[in-house]
Each structure stands twice: as C-alpha cells, then as structure tokens.
Design a protein that fits this description.
The complex is a heterodimer of chains A (180) and B (198). Chain A has eight helices and no strands. Chain A has helices at 2-20, 26-36, 40-61, 73-100, 105-125, 133-136, 142-146, 157-179. Helix content of chain A is 74%, strand content 0%. Mean pLDDT of chain A is 72; it is low at 144-149. Chain A is rod-shaped, with a radius of gyration of 52 Å. Chain A has 180 residues and is mainly α. Chain A starts with a helix and ends with a helix. Chain B has 198 residues and is mostly helical. Chain B contains ten helices and no strands. Chain B is globular, with a radius of gyration of 19 Å. The model of chain B is unreliable at 114-125 and 194-198 (pLDDT under 50).
Chain lengths: 180, 198
C-alpha cells in the first residue's frame, strides 16, 4: 500500500514537474489545471514541486567554481610563516639599531658645520675689544703687539679666522704663564 | 540573471535570449510572458485556496507586483515554479491578514481545511532554516551522479530543452529524460518532500 501511494505521489510530482517546466502540451496543461481545482493532493504536490525546483535552481545558479579547497596550499602557507618572522625580526633589529646609536657621519658633519657657521656669524657681529697689549707685551709676536683696535675690527671671514688664531694663542700663553 | 555568470562546470554559457543581451527591459518582458502563460494555472491553484474570485484577482495582482518589485535571480526554467510558490505565499499571507473569526467563518462556508490555511510557507522561514535548507539542497545535488547532475544543471539552470541536452552530451533523448526524472526522484527523496505530503 505504501509503495503504491508512494509511486502515485511520485507520478503526481512528476506530472507537476512536467507542467512547471513546460514539458506538457497545451491540452495536457489544460487538463492539469482543471485537476488542480478538484484535487487537494495535486495542489500540494504542485506546491512541493515548485519549492523543490526553486531550491535546486537557486543552488545551481549560485554554485561556486571550487566548492572544496585543495589540500596542497596549506603546507606552503605554513612553511612561509618562519621566513616571514625572520624577515620581520631583521627589519626590527635594523630599525632599533638605527634608533639607538648609529648616527651617520653626515649628521655629525652637518652639526659641526652648523656650529662653525653659527660661531662665525656670531663673531662677525661681535666687535671684540682691543687686545690688552701690555699684558702680553713681552711674549706676543711683534705683529700682534703692533695691532691696534681698529685692526682688530672684523670685517669678514678672514678677520674671523684671525680672531680665532689670536684667541688660541692667548689661551696658550695663559697656560704657559700659569705653569711657570 | 542566469546568463550573466559563467557556468561553474565549464559548460557553454546560456545563449542570450532573442532580441539581445539580458537587459532589464527584456527581463521584465520575459517575466511577463511567463506570468501570462501561467495565469490560468495560477488562478486554478488559488481558486481552491481563497474564498472568492475577487480575492484570487487580488492575490494574482500581488504576485505580479512581487515579480516586478524584486527581480529574482531565477533561471528561466524555474520561473513558473517560482510564481506558484509566490502565489502560495500570497494566499497564506492573505489568510493571516484576516481575523481569526472571519477565517473560521470562511472555513466553515468554504470547507477549506484549517491546516492548509495555516500552512507554513517560505515567506516566514527564518534565515537559519533557509541556510540549512540551502545546505541540504547542495548536498543532495552533490550526491547525484555527475552525468545526471550535468543534465539537471543544463535543464534547470541553463534552460536548455532536452533535445539540445541530448545532442550536447551525445546521448539519446530518452536517456536524457530518464536521467532527469531519476534525478528529480532522488532529490525528492533526499529532501524528504514525499513525506511532507502524508
């Protein structure tokens, strides 16, 4: 009995499928529609078959090209991890070394140049008092002894250098005096 | 729509409908053709679910609006089935809108089974149940033999007639028909549709 009812259900469902998919001729379709008005099970079968067709069509339409991922990429992605870590560590070491103490020479050179320039500019604007010749009279070279305040006015870079020389020599003499 | 995405199995894509590529206007016209061709069956289907002819007309109008408002990604072979499903949903919605007293009175007058009036349709399925249904359907399709699955895909997704399917796969027409029927039988059993009719 169950098998008979199942087979009749299957036949009914197949009939509904033929109707829904346009596999029926016009006359057969008209008979089917007439049966719909009087047969409850046929209506239920039509609804069930409609749902099935829509679900299957929806799934087929939204199929992805690769429903299952291949296994081979996994080992490659795992083996790349240590390498990535090593590269990141090297990069971090380089950055830390750069931040800690490795100052490139151009920066030092730049700093010294800026310092000398600043000093030179300051000297240019600074009108040094004339040397107190009496203090160094016995020891200074004749040229320096003969220098006057006017001569010592700075007019350019050469004058700044002269001033530097004078200052250094004065400090040296001072040291000799103290030692003596 | 169905002709836009490339087939997953490498099969030739569905040819463009006559009149040019699938433009929105062409799609609306195609849908209207399906609706007009199905109007008799839809009316016969709804006449047993709704009490009056005017209600059937209202429901048909709602089906038409649903079809135009939401352009579903339904391949052409499944559009008639989609209309019947929407019609069933609209009929259920129509019943839910009526009060309990009116429904009882209509049931008594029209001898409409109460179970059918309150039958749950796809309109009120929650997303979780839809996802589970999709998974079940996908698994059922994957369990089909490859040769059969190919025929189902060509018929339900690409909308090819059985004669063209038979030529493409180089198999007899009867074989294509038989495999399609067996595939649908298997899908019905896999998805337990037969048991829902009991």
């Amino acid at each position: 009995m169950n098998q008979t009812s199942d087979s009749s259900c299957i036949d009914q469902r197949q009939r509904c499928s033929d109707y829904l998919l346009g596999e029926m001729g016009d006359d057969e379709a008209s008979r089917f529609e007439a049966d719909l008005t009087v047969d409850d099970t046929l209506r239920a079968a039509l609804l069930a078959e409609s749902n099935l067709i829509c679900q299957v069509a929806d799934q087929l339409t939204n199929e992805t090209p690769c429903p299952t991922l291949p296994a081979s990429p996994r080992p490659a992605s795992v083996s790349l991890q240590p390498l990535a870590i090593i590269v990141a560590a090297i990069a971090a070491v380089v950055m830390i070394a750069a931040a800690i103490g490795w100052a490139p020479s151009p920066q030092n050179e730049d700093y010294e140049f800026q310092l000398a320039t600043a000093w030179a500019e300051r000297i240019e604007t600074w009108q040094a008092p004339p040397l107190v010749v009496d203090q160094f009279n016995a020891d200074l070279p004749v040229e320096l002894v003969a220098a006057t305040g006017d001569d010592l006015e700075l007019t350019g870079d050469e004058d700044a250098l002269d001033w530097m020389v004078l200052a250094i020599e004065a400090s040296l003499l001072e040291e000799n005096r103290n030692e003596g | 729509m169905s002709g836009d995405s490339p087939p997953a199995d490498g099969s030739p894509p569905q040819p463009n409908p006559p009149g040019g590529p699938a433009s929105p206007k062409n799609e609306i016209e195609a849908w209207n053709e399906v609706l007009e061709a199905s109007r008799g069956g839809l009316r016969a289907f709804l006449s047993t679910k709704l009490p009056q002819a005017a209600d059937v007309d209202d429901c048909l109008q709602a089906v038409s609006i649903a079809m135009l408002r939401m352009p579903p990604d339904v391949p052409p072979p499944a559009r008639k089935a989609w209309l019947f499903r929407v019609a069933a949903n609209q009929a259920a919605l129509w019943w839910r809108k009526k009060s309990v007293a009116d429904r009882a009175l209509e049931t008594a007058l029209r001898s409409v089974p109460p179970a059918e009036a309150g039958q749950r349709h796809f309109a009120d399925t929650d997303p979780l149940e839809t996802a589970e249904t999709r998974q079940r359907v996908r698994q059922a399709i994957e369990r089909l033999p490859e040769s059969t699955r190919k025929i189902v895909r060509l018929r339900l997704r690409d909308g090819k007639p059985f004669r063209e399917i038979a030529e493409q796969l180089d198999i007899p027409l009867g074989t294509a028909l038989t495999r399609m029927r067996r595939a649908m039988d298997q899908l019905r059993i896999e998805l337990n549709d037969l048991h829902e009719l009991d």
